Structures are given as C-alpha cells and as structure tokens.
Amino acid sequence: MTKPILALAIVSSLAALAGCTSLQSVSVTQIPSDRSRPLRAEVSNTAFLGIHFTNDFIEPLTAQLMSQCPRGRVTGILTKQEASLYVVVQTRRVVATGYCVYDPAPVQPSEATAMQETH
Amino acid sequence: MRRFLPLFLVFTPSLVGCATLHRAQLDEIDGQHGHLVPFEIHVSETGVNTKAVGQIASVAMRSSRPSQIANIVALFQFGPKTGNVVYDDEFADAVAGTILERCPTARVTGLMSLRESTNYYAVSGEYVTVRGYCIVD
After folding, report:
1. Which chain B residues contact residue A59 at CB under 8 A?
2. Domain ranges for chain B
3. Are the CB atoms for A26 and A79 separated by under 8 Å?
4. Considering the entire predicted model, what is its pTM?
C-alpha cells in the first residue's frame, strides 16, 4: 500500500519540479533578409506564490538588445512572455530574439544625375 | 474586536498590490538614424472585481446576499478580458496622441508596449505603459 503512494509522491514531485509553464503573449516584427547577426535578450522575475509587487523587471530588455547591436537596427524581434510555476514559486520570463542589421548608407546622387533631375 | 478580524484578514493583504504583466510587445529598434531620447507614457483606469466587492459586503453585512448578487452581476461580465473590468474602455486611446506630443518629429523607435495591472483585492489599477525612443538628429 505504501509503495504506490511513494511512487505517486515521486511522480508528483518530478512533475512539480519540471514546472507548469504557460505562454502569455507572443509578438513578432518584420523579419530582415540579412539574418547573419542573431541576438537574444531575456529578463525574468521570481516570486513566492506568484505574488509580484512590480513589473519593472522588463525594463532592461530593450537596453540588452541595443547593447548587442550598437548603432544598428534590431528587427525581426520575437517577443515571448511566459510564466513557470514550481510548486510555490512562480517565475515570469520575457525573451526577445531578433537580428541586428546595418543598413547600407543611402547612395548620394551624382552631380550629373542631380542636374538632370532639376531640369 | 473579533468581529473585525475577518475584515482585517481580507484587507491586510490587499494593502500590498499584486502586480500582473498581461502582455509585452517590443517593436523594432533603430539606432542608426540619429540620437535616441527615451520617453515613457503611462495611462491608467480603476478596475473593479465584482466578486471581491460582493465578498467584502457579505462579510461586513454578515449576509450571503451581497455575494450572491455580485455573482449574478459577474455573469454579465463573462467573456475574454485582460485584468478587471473598467468603467471607461477608452482610457488607452490617448496613447498614440501622447507619443506624438512627446516626440513631435514623429520619428519613434524601440516601442515597448505593456499591459499591466496592480490588484488591491476588490479594486485594481489597470495600466497601459509605452516606453520608446524619439530619434533626434
């Protein structure tokens, strides 16, 4: 009688340790043709019983992405917000993945072309 | 003194707000066309948890009638929603206009849009926060 109970307790504990994860929101922006520089940023916040007092944990996300792409354009951003519950502790996580793109400088019209356009 | 104990137990946890992040969305970040100046816009509205209001009224009046009425009212609020119900569903409409006020050049990048709430048991603060950067030459 005790063996099945013990087995059930072990299985339940393992299931609880694995965490119960829920996906809360997903968004994506335009994906560039140049995907040679992928980047990733993640912020998370853990609280007992899922009682969180602020949502400020998300603030560094933009800065993390910008620091990986200095003076460039971050695009193709997939933002994923999820929450995992581990028995009595909840972790909220926001993950952003994207691509760093450096657009070529716009070509200046030559003097002859500019002259033609004015006439 | 003992008659106030249930009220005390109900209200004490609610003094500390429980923050919820419902949705986070991040837009493109363009750091190659000028200097970036950060801005933040925050709009809010008071939300009401009908069931909780009924429970408080039931405890205060020592009757289950308010809670029953609140449950019936809550049936009319059934449906997909984010956070608690509010009295003004247009409270977030001003966000786009406010972005242009903060950034008159209208060159905006790195917008992070957040839908969040802070719950104080029967009432809640329902917020829309937008953070971003204004591109300045």
Report:
1. 131
2. 2-136
3. yes
4. 0.78
